[in-house]
Amino acid sequence: MSEFNSSNGDCLTGFALSAATVGVIGLFTSSGVGSLIGGAMSLIRFGECNKRAQADLADCR
Q1: Which of 1, 7, 16, 61 is the most exposed place for a label (fewest CB within 10 A)?
Q2: In the chain, what are the domain boundaries?
């Protein structure tokens, strides 16, 4: 379970960094479409990362 928590924490950290990057880029470019696409990609990557962590947890049980 601790390995899942670690993997899930890595997913959250990656998502936070991606979202912060999208926010900073959005401030400098004022491109709503680019920020929307970047935000969507951050969410998709987080979902895939979390899915892998949950699959690893299920394999351990």
Answers
A1: 61
A2: 2-60
Alpha-carbon distance 11 to 45, whole Å?
9
- For residues 38 and 44, give the distance between their C-alpha atoms in angstroms, rounded to a whole number: 10
| Separation CA 10–CA 14 (nearest Å) | 6
Q: Work out the number of other CB atoms within 10 angstroms of the CB of residue 57.
A: 15
Enumerate residues 6+ apart whose C-beta is below 8 A from 18. 38, 41, 42, 45, 46
pTM higher than the cut 0.90 = no
Q: Which residue has the higher pLDDT, 35 or 42?
A: 42
